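Example 3.2
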Amino acid sequence: MRGRKIIAFVSLAAIALVAGCLFKSQPFKGVVSYNDGKVYLKPGRYYSETPPYYRVGILPEGWERLSTRARTISWYNQSYQSSISTDAYCGRSVQDRSLTSLGGDLITALSERTFVEEKNFELAGRGALRQAVTGTVDGVPTQVDLVVVRKDGCVFDFYLVSQGAPLPEALEDFEVFFGGFDY
């Protein structure tokens, strides 16, 4: 249970930092709900009869949806001691920043950070960045595997947070999840 709380904390701390500090007064307010592979976005000052959404891959059995106050959609798998989350932000504050810079914002909750891997790849026809970073949260070894992609003036984040190194099964599920991205 302690591992679950730590992983949830890391996810929420990263989201709170990004949402609270970087993207305050944007016309787009982030993710608000999830249903059947669709992550729904809440427009800010613009009204739409059909809420915008982006698609993600559907996670297999064993991933329990987490209820959070942060603007993120998250799941936790007790067997893997890992969480998977996604969020999105749109607006001028993200348009001119590099993917590396945007990705770095989400891992600031880790102490003693070490980059394990960083690679550029293509996701949904766009350039994307994947980073794996290890560190600690309250002395507990943690790894964050992060994917960042920009499309149509928005930045979409997908991240796997694991206590210690992630299990291969958690990584496979994460790849299915972000690999299903479409906007």
